[in-house]
Amino acid sequence: MAYQALYRVFRPQSFQDVVGQEHVTRTLKNAIVQNKTSHAYLFSGPRGTGKTSAAKIFAKAINCPNSVDGEPCNVCDICTGTTDGSIPDVLEIDAASNNGVEEIRDIREKVKYAPTVAKYKVYIIDEVHMLSTGAFNALLKTLEEPPKHVIFILATTEPHKLPLTIISRVQRFDFKRITTQDIIGRLAFILDEEKIAYDEKALDIVARAAEGGMRDALSLLDQVISYGTQEVTVADALEITGSVAQGMLTELVQAVIDSDAKQALEKLSGLLAEGKDPVRLVEDLLVFFRDVLLFQKAPDLTDAMERAVIDEAFQTLATAADANKIYQYVTILNDAGQQMRFSNHPGIYIEVALVQLIQVGGGATPATSNQQAVAPSGDVAELTNKVDRLEQELNELKRQIASGAVAANNAGAQQAAPRKKQAISGNKQFKAPVGRINAVLSAAKKQDLQLIRSCWSDLISMLMASQAALLNEAEPVAASNDTFVLKFKHEIHCQMAMDNPNFVDTVTNGISRLTKNNYSFIGIPEDQWGEIRENFLKNADNTEAEDGGEKAPEPAEDPLISEAAKLVGEGLIEIKE
């Protein structure tokens, strides 16, 4: 006979074989014993948790003439026929491929006929959420009042997709994810039955990788057995699941806590070069940090550890770790994990996340002298206070320099202006092109600015997350027929944007596609924009004064416009020729 997968060979044949769902199996057995079964059931829950198996066991148990305490005998013709699918009174239907109205109408016609062999005719509809709306409507009346000899069992992984009219007509049982310990116990039982040697740590790795699904765990175990020789080993389990050995994980986390960027990145590069899955690595780090926190708060709960083995290296690391920083580590890793699921280059995200973890760690270098290493706590506190005061004074000085107050106090009115300009230019790393911006202002048109602003949100949605982040606090403030001025709230964002040719090309191409016009743009920080705009307006006024102060005669005000302005205000009126 051809080889069969473990999850097929060891499919549960009785309620006691269903692992981790005692709240379901106990209720069903009692209902059978007390003869209080319902006409329709809904089994919902994650994949591989025993929904279809429980449905078949229930179909056997309710029809088995030799059942004991609600358990089928698995020996009689009805039990064996239900197991191999030969009995005509137990029908398993795949709703994913039979989801039309005609299939349900066929069921409605056949439920009228009495069962041929068994006491009850049982319909098991798997993946019932795949039925069409018409099929659900066709099923409603039959599901509510079927003949006394018919029982419906609906199974689904997505119960929220079922109409409430269906859910209200069934008894619902929610299958939960199977715990790691329950999966390990079942795997050990199967390996003992197959007479295969194993390492318990290897079963722990397989069980955690299955994420609560018994079928996934058995499929992984099948792969590990095929990959190895005569024993299920930790090395084989790590290789198949893509997980990381605890020693490597401990060394990586220790480098992060020590803010050793070189060591951490080298460890990460080595793991990725070995073919470790970046997504799985992030999950391993998340669970590892969770175990560190758990060990710090409740060191006696060793059974609750999901990833870590309590060895000497782990205890040393957990004792020295800062809980507040671990909370930040978890947030960073969680964000990276979400972004990696939608990226073709997940390795980049984990490298960036690792650098962020090291920065959160503080980047502090170890003491370079014995005196520093044994500095009294009072001296450290005094030094910390001095550093804080110096930072405050430095920030205050920067604000004064930006406002020109220092220049005004140190010199006379004639020397103040040059010093102020020098201070400002020295403080700013990015210098906006004043001449080009003045040219845009001279030819600025309101229509161009409105066109660009109307497409701005669409442009941001088109960009990658990292590019869109630079534009979240940026806005177009002036535009001519071929160029617009883009104001950035922070100077560093302006610097990063304008120094990146790829970013400039992406934004230029995107706005051109949206507006159907070839626009280029000029970036400028918010504080420089205010200064340049003010100078432009002053120069424009001076030019008019030098020309004799004669302005073009203003057109006579329209009485209709005047009345409208009185009613709604001038700010809400837009005049079009």
TrEMBL record:
Domain of life: Bacteria
InterPro entries: AAA+_ATPase, ClpA/B, DNA_pol3_clamp-load_cplx_C, DNA_pol_III_gamma-3, DNA_pol_III_sug/sutau_N, DNA_Rep/Repair_Clamp_Loader, HLD_clamp_pol_III_gamma_tau, P-loop_NTPase
Domain AAA+ ATPase residues, every copy: 37-179
EC number: 2.7.7.7
The entry's keywords: ATP-binding, DNA replication, DNA-directed DNA polymerase, Metal-binding, Nucleotide-binding, Nucleotidyltransferase, Transferase, Zinc
GO cellular component: DNA polymerase III complex
Keyword Transmembrane helix: no
GO MF annotations in UniProt: ATP binding; DNA binding; DNA-directed DNA polymerase activity; metal ion binding
Enzyme class: transferase
Reaction catalyzed: DNA(n) + a 2'-deoxyribonucleoside 5'-triphosphate = DNA(n+1) + diphosphate
Protein family according to the UniProt entry: Belongs to the DnaX/STICHEL family.
Name recorded for this polypeptide: DNA-directed DNA polymerase
